[in-house]
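Chain A, query sequence.
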Amino acid sequence: MKYTAEQFNEKYPVGSGFIYQSVAAFRGGEAVKTASDAWTMCSGEVVVKLQGKSGCFSVDHLTYAGR
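Chain A, predicted structure.
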């Protein structure tokens, strides 16, 4: 599902657990937690910061794994 930043933030508070997949089509991935609210970049991509990681990451590459 494609989320707007507002929808993502409403559903998943900061600190929520996800599996991050650098390539969304691949199975597996790294367990991570969000470190910020999501926001929309100028390109329209919805992104979020992840704990222990530099930069921002597309919410399209995150699979919810619980709090």
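The beta strands are 17-20, 30-33, 39-40, 46-48, 57-58, 62-66. The CA atoms of residues 3 and 46 lie 7 Å apart.
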